[in-house]
Inactive RESTRICTED TEV MOVEMENT 2-like
Amino acid sequence: MEAKPADTFIEEFEPFCKWERKDDRDVLEIHLREFKKEQLKVQISNLRILKISGERPLGGSKKSRFYKEVPIPKDFDTTAIRAKFVNGCLYIVMPKKTSLSEKKEEAESPHEDQTKEQPQNGSGQKSCKQETSAPVESAETTPAVSERAVWPTLLTLGEVVVSLAALAGLIAYVVYMYRFMVPQGNE
């Protein structure tokens, strides 16, 4: 007899988020009262997108999950972003670049600034405010942060090569069509 896979009901939701903007950093506070640290995932893509997700069982064959993407503007240091989960709140500290790291990143990254996500309005959420004075370094409370922008130079070089190849093909096509359509003086 075959074993039937259990039908799983997934409840997707949008967690309450709040931004705290400061001169040297921004802090994204995400309220996740029922979640545990092990059920959360924080990633940074090569395209400067912060991806935050989580999934937890509700009981039986039910699960609750969320997925959120936040563009990271160019003036933030992606290598210094830290996440901390405390009292049902996920704090993501995004330090702004210093002038030295800004120049290095601008030389490496071809991507344009993306708009900042606006804070969302929520109701009925408990406040889990915490003072965040420095980038969080505690490994005990930090969800996995992966997919760092490791290869921006290689991506840029690859994009240039592909663009040049496409341009060469376009020029060859235009020259061919010109010679085919315009009568030559020797004929």
In short: The chain has two domains: 9-148, 151-187. Residues 138 and 160 are 40 Å apart (CA to CA). The helical segments are 99-108, 152-181. Residues 151-187 form one domain.
